[in-house]
Amino acid sequence: MKLRPTTSLSDQQVQSGLNYFIHEGLAAEAMATFTGGTFLVAMAVLLKASNFQIGLLAALPTLTNVFQLLSIWLVQKYKNRRAISVICSFFARVPLFIIGFLPLLFSHGTSISALLFFLFFHYFFTSVSGASWNSWIKDLVPEKILGSYFSRKARITQILNVTLSLAVAMFIDYIKSHFPQFELTAYAGMFIVGGVMGMIGVYFLSRAPEPKTTLQDQKLFDLLSKPLKDVNFRNLLTFHSFYAFATSLALPFFVVYMMKTVGLSFAWIIFLGLVAKFGSIFSLKFWGTFSDKYSNKTIISICAPTFITCILSWTFVAMTSNHVVSIALLFVIHLVSGISAAGIDLAIGNLAMKLAPKNEAISYISARNIVVALFAAAGPIAGGLMADFFATHHLTWNIEWQGPAGISTFNLLELQNWNFFFVISAILALLSMRLVKRIKEQGEVQKEMVTIVMRKSVTRGLRKNMSGEAIKDRINNPIIIPAIKKRMLTYKLWREVKNTA
């Protein structure tokens, strides 16, 4: 198969490439669902992983982004992002098969050390592939549809994630209930299936066309230093790095917190994760439209404080003894955090691509990924190291009211174990928001104006959906049951006859 770039692409080739990238994204999302996220944390807990090892496991995907330096050197040397991305993606999938076959081939199964060892190589090759992929898709996607395309791509992949997560969660719960001795084998099988999905993604990736790169022949560190000398891009890096460190301090421990502190079953944890996904799916189109029409910076200013509030809200989950109240609070937190996180991720990604010059996208985006990765990886590692310290400390803030009937105690705040991370994470993330004002974006719109437009759009949408014309369109929709349609039309005719009489 030829993996050579093309000097110029027709509109048909561009559209074909965009479709192939969506297909590749679906396969990659399926792979990530089977081999990462909640299921990977649950597997690590089953393998008796320590807090530090769980933090390291969460840090690996971002920590290995420093190896994107190798990708820049390869692109500069061979001028073929397509070949680099396809070949490295292939090698990234091989460790998944090894992890999957270890428990099947050896009686002693696998260990957390072996899992970390092989996942390192998986994330290493994924990182090298991802840097060339970022530059490749930057040149392929027209800038005028940047927000809508990536929001559509993210929405479709997350719908797949929701569907697969629910199915896999039901499967794992069934294994844990009826065949607990095969739980590790089930996780191993998921890695094999994930590897197969990943290889399908490699095939779609190899079919997408690549416009010829114009990356200049410069020294590697000169290429990386240029984005750091760009004041505006450096402001984006400073904010994103600080924000990534703050949020990653707590994020990896949410699943562990729900399992060990709140005492939720695996099914409930997956369900709440799906709630966040649903919030993300249904809001992505909205954020994509506003990203193209207004500014990404304003979306960050709206979504980030909302997400920070959600992190802080985790401290109140375990304060109530009512299990139903805890689950209800978790439901709201996951839904709102899913909506706000979708806007943040989309806006930061689009903003980085907008600020990156077309001919130097790989150096700009890779510099951003490498710098942010170092801070994002430091968060869970620091959290893992401090977890044992906070496990032995407890902070309680109560108010006592003494009256004729006795003393009443009101529990205002109770921090212990992972709750400390949530408060620290929220405070640091809130401080990072002060850095957003320094970023300059072309076509920037004030936050207040966008908020008014957003509110009017939501109101207009609700009014439109509740209008008589909209209801009539739904009645005439071919998927409506004919019997119901017939009854509604009959009722309408009866009203007309009555009014005439």
TrEMBL record:
Task: Please give the InterPro entries that the UniProt record associates with this protein.
Answer: MFS, MFS_trans_sf, Sugar_transport-like
Asked if the keyword Transmembrane belongs to this entry, the reply reads yes
Q: Does the keyword Transmembrane helix apply?
A: yes
GO MF term list: transmembrane transporter activity
Highest taxon of source? Bacteria
UniProt keywords, alphabetically: Membrane, Transmembrane, Transmembrane helix
Give the transmembrane ranges: 21-46, 52-74, 86-106, 112-133, 154-172, 184-205, 236-259, 265-287, 299-319, 325-348, 369-391, 418-436
A matching Pfam family: MFS_1
Q: Which PANTHER family match?
A: INTEGRAL MEMBRANE TRANSPORT PROTEIN-RELATED (PTHR23526), MAJOR FACILITATOR SUPERFAMILY (MFS) PROFILE DOMAIN-CONTAINING PROTEIN (PTHR23526:SF2)
- According to UniProt, the name of this protein is MFS transporter
